[in-house]
Amino acid sequence: MPAPAAHLKLPADLVACHECDLLQTEPALLPGQTARCVRCDAFLARNPPDSLDRTLALTLTALVLYVIANAWPLVGLDMQGRVVAVTLFEAVQVLWRDGMMPVAALVFGTAILFPLLELVMILLVLVPLRLGRVTPRMAPFFRLVRSLKPWGMVEVFLLGMLVSLVKLSHLATVILGTAFWATAALILALTFAGRAFDTRLLWQTPLPDEAEDLLVTSR
Amino acid sequence: MSRRALTAREAGLLSCHVCGQLARPPEGAAHSLRCPRCRAPMHLRKPASVSTTWALLIASIVMFLPANLLPVMTTTSLLGSQQDTIMSGVVFLWQSGSWPLAAVVFFASVMVPLLKIIALVYLTLSVQRRSTQNLLQRTRLYRLVEFVGRWSMLDIYVITMLVALVSFRGLATIEAGPGAIAFGAVVVLTMFAAMSFDPRLIWDPLAGRSADPHPAHHD
C-alpha cells in the first residue's frame, strides 16, 4: 500500500481543521489553553498541564472503579420482604434469556465491553509512552480508542438507571448498591481522563524512514 | 468570508483523521493511501459520505415507526398485564409527578431521534445542493447532532434495568417488547449516519466559487 508522502517543507505547526478543512497554524498553547479553528470554531488541540501523568493516574483509577462497578450489585429492590439485586452483567443476561438478544448485545457492548476496551487501549498506549518507549506499533491501539469512544455510554447508562429507579420507587423499596456509586465515580474519572489527555503527545516521534523516501518535493 | 481561505484540499494535501498529519499524495496514487506517521487509511473526504449517510438515514426512518408504535415492555402484576410504548412511559412518569424526569426521557427518547433524523436530512440535502449559506450554523448543527445522539440510548438502559429488577414471580414481572429492538436500531443507525457524514463537505462549495481545477465529488 503506497503511503502519501509527508511534505518536509510544510511547517510543523500547520494543521487542517477536521471539520472544515481550513489550513491554519496551530498557536503555541500555554498549559490549560485550547486551540479552536478560526473559521468554524472546531476543537483543534488542548495543552492540559501534566497530561501524561494525570491521564495515566485517572485511567488507572477508572479501571479500578470499572472492576467494582461490574463485580458488585448495582441496585436492589425490596418488595414485601423479597429482595432482588442485580449486577450489570446479570441484567444483560436476563434480557438475553427473554429473547431480546439484539438489545442485550447493545447494552453489553455500550455499557460493559467498549468502556473496558477503551480503558485497556489507553493504558496500552500510555504506559509505554510513560516509560519512554515510543513505537509506531501503538498507533493501531490509539485508532481503536478513537473509534470506540462514541460507543462507550456509561454516563447515559447511569441516567437510565436513575429513571428506572424513579419508576420503581412507588412499587418497592430501592437499595443503591456499591456498584451504583462506583459507576458514578467511574464517569467522573473517565471525563477527567479525557480532558487531561493530550493526544499530540503520541505523535511527537519522527516519521519512519520509508515515509521520507516517498517525499514528493514540489508540484 | 471576504478573505480567501485555503483548505488542505485546495493545497493538494490530505490530513490524517487520526493523528492530524498533513501529507501530499504521490502522483497517480489516489486510492488506499495510508498516513506516513500513524498508518491510518487516508482520504480526502470520508468515502461515499453522502450516499452512506442517505442509506443509514432511510434505514433509521423505516425503524422509527415500529420503535414508537410497538410496545417496548410488558408489565405483568397482580392487577393484570399492561403494555408500554416509549411515549406511554413518558406519560406515566409525567402523571406520577416526576416532571423533570418525564421531560428528560421525552427529550432523549422522542425528540432527539426525530430532530437528529431531520437535521441530518437537511445537512445532506444542503451539501448535495452545494449550498453556501449558513455554513457556520450547519457545522454547529452537525456538532450538536454528534453530541446528543448517544443520549437516546437512555430508554434502552431504563428497559434493561426494569426487566432485570422486576422479576418477582407471582407478584410482578416486566418483559421487554419488540419495540425495544427497533428503538435500539434507530439509535445505532442514526449514530452511524452522523459518523458517515463529513462536515468538510459543508465548506467545500466555497472552493468551487474560485477557479477550482478539481471540482468536488461528493459520492
What does this protein look like?
The complex is a heterodimer of chains A (219) and B (219). Chain A folds into 2 domains: 11-47, no CATH class; 51-197, no CATH class. Chain A contains 7 helices and 8 strands; from the N terminus they run βββββαββααααβαα. Chain A is of the alpha+beta class and 219 residues long. In chain A, helix 1 packs antiparallel against helix 6. Chain A has helices at residues 51-71, 88-97, 101-130, 139-148, 154-168, 178-196, 209-213, and strands at 5-6, 14-16, 23-25, 34-36, 43-46, 75-79, 82-86, 173-176. The model of chain A is unreliable at 209-219 (pLDDT under 50). Chain A starts with a strand and ends in a 6-residue tail after the last helix. Chain A is elongated and about 75 Å long. Chain B has 219 residues and is of the alpha+beta class. Chain B has 2 domains: 1-44, no CATH class; 48-205, Butyryl-CoA Dehydrogenase, subunit A, domain 3 (Up-down Bundle). Chain B has helices at 49-69, 86-95, 99-128, 135-148, 154-165, 178-196, 200-209, and strands at residues 14-15, 22-24, 33-34, 41-42, 73-77, 80-84, 167-168, 172-176. In chain B, the strands form 3 sheets. Chain B has a 4-stranded antiparallel beta sheet with strand order 6-5-8-7. Chain B has a two-stranded antiparallel sheet with strand order 1-2. Chain B has a two-stranded antiparallel sheet with strand order 3-4. In chain B, a hairpin with a 6-residue loop joins strand 3 (33-34) and strand 4 (41-42). In chain B, helix 1 (49-69) packs antiparallel against helix 3 (99-128), helix 1 runs antiparallel to helix 6 (178-196) and helix 3 (99-128) packs across helix 6 (178-196). Mean pLDDT of chain B is 86; it is low at 211-219. Chains A and B meet through strand 1, strand 2, strand 6, strand 7 and helix 2 of A and strand 1, strand 2, strand 3, helix 2 and helix 3 of B.
